[in-house]
Write a structure and sequence with these properties.
With about 350 residues, this protein is an alpha/beta fold. The protein is about 40% helix and about 15% strand.
Length: about 350
């Protein structure tokens, strides 16, 4: 009997981090044929992704980025699969691949959608107040939609499957050079501070306050290293000047940047391995840290989904958090989002059922 074929486009690291744990487990279970379509940019830019894909045994095809955006080509790929696993639903995908996602609707191609952010637009929040509709069935949410305030279109709730957190780390951990590793080791503690100051969500006063507090903490705690990491290590105009000023004022302040510095090319999990605890604005980084056993706290947070965690409001609360440990509210949040392996197994079973496959 021919196995149903599930496809997935892997355009970048977020697709790999959120979809490939599921795709590789489906492949290992053996009742679904998995095919991944990999952009050449991702293939050549990310050696650790190449390692994972090659080792998995999953069928893959990689083509130039431009080709993957050409309708005549991606429609041919879509016609050869029974369904697609996606992080961008065809009705709400506003990314540069939105047209390709939307093409799945007239083709009648079933899609299975996976949440990929704890504070995700149109899921946990909506920036325009619009009702969120989906094409996909099933729709995989990490937690019950009652935890969010977004209004869903009629018929959406019935298609939602609550699966929990599924971002099982799959990439080999990258470490910095020996000199920097030794430099960090000299500190009593290492605090990772992640932020999402990249857009218009935070105003200048909030950003100024956060950097002033970090500076004050660094001055009062010279035996603690503070690693500042912007979203995905990207540098932006609205906080670059703050980074430069902080680096000049505080010898114990370090920066995790994607394209330069001693932590060049390191991802979130890599930097967490260097850290004792995590402070972040509302971001999936919080769950990444908690699932690695790292105490986590919030800064400039107005998201109810994360409100049970400690809130850093001044140097005193920051100091108390750093000197504390993994508390009951942190463990409760991990409990809410569930066990990674069980969550992924649940998603696999639901996908197999949707495709008419039976686990042997």
């Amino acid at each position: 009997m021919k196995k149903p074929v599930l496809g997935a486009f892997l355009n970048g690291v977020p697709d790999v981090e959120n979809l490939f744990p599921i795709l590789s487990d489906l492949h290992a279970r053996g009742d679904v044929e998995v095919r991944v379509f990999v952009t050449s940019g991702l293939w050549w830019r990310e050696p650790r992704v190449r390692e994972v894909l090659k080792a998995s045994g999953v069928k893959m095809l990689f083509r130039h980025n431009r080709l993957m955006k050409m309708p005549w080509y991606y429609k041919r790929l879509l016609r050869d699969v029974d369904a697609m696993l996606v992080i961008g639903d065809p009705k709400i995908d506003n990314s540069i691949f939105g047209k390709r996602s939307a093409a799945m609707i007239p083709l009648g191609k079933p899609t299975f959608w996976m949440q990929h952010g704890v504070i995700q637009n149109k899921i946990a929040q909506t920036l325009d107040g619009a009702v969120t509709d989906f094409y996909s069935d099933p729709i995989f949410y990490w937690v019950d939609p009652s935890h969010h305030s977004v209004e869903l279109a009629p018929g959406v709730v019935e298609r939602i499957k609550v699966c929990g957190f599924v971002k099982r780390p799959i990439l080999r951990v990258k470490t910095p050079g020996a000199a920097f590793t030794n430099e960090l080791a000299r500190y009593r503690k290492r605090v990772l501070l992640c932020h999402t100051f990249r857009g218009g969500e935070y105003d200048a006063d909030q950003i100024n306050w956060a950097y002033d507090m970090i500076r004050d903490y660094c001055h009062k705690n010279p035996d603690v290293a503070v690693i500042v990491r912007p979203h995905r290590g990207k540098e932006r105009a609205n906080y670059n000047a703050h980074d430069k000023a902080l680096a000049k004022d505080c010898k114990n302040a370090y920066f995790s940047l994607q394209h330069r510095g001693p932590m060049k090319g390191m991802n979130m999990n890599d930097v967490l391995h260097l850290s004792d605890c995590l402070i972040s604005t509302a971001s999936t980084a919080i769950l990444d840290g908690l699932y690695m056993g790292k105490p986590a706290a919030m800064i400039v947070n107005d998201r109810p989904q994360l409100a049970t965690l400690p809130e850093i409001t001044d140097v005193e609360s920051l100091t108390a958090f750093v000197e504390g440990g993994f508390t009951a509210p942190m463990q409760e949040m991990v409990g809410l989002y569930g066990d990674l392996d069980r969550n992924i197994a649940f998603v696999c079973r639901e996908i197999e059922a949707a495709l008419g496959a039976t686990q042997g």
